[in-house]
Task: structure prediction
Amino acid sequence: MSQGREERDAERRRAALRDLERAGDESELVFSSAVKRAAERARDHFTAADAEGKDWTEVWGRRIGRALSLLAVLALAYYLAVTYL
Result:
């Protein structure tokens, strides 16, 4: 009777280890896909993929404005780091 119980416990332990390995693999996929989605969203944002018209002035105006805003944020972060740290 105890032999049957030990076999069931061993099988449950093996099944739990398989499940843990599978869950670890899936969490890496979720993280990498989240990073990929964030990178694609940033690329689309800075290339003005959301411009409603195909007017080149609107597209380039958005690109220039977004690039300048990024430079302003970086400059402000640098200034604050140098001043207060």
Summary: The longest helix spans residues 2-46. The mean pLDDT is 86. The helical segments are 2-46, 56-84.
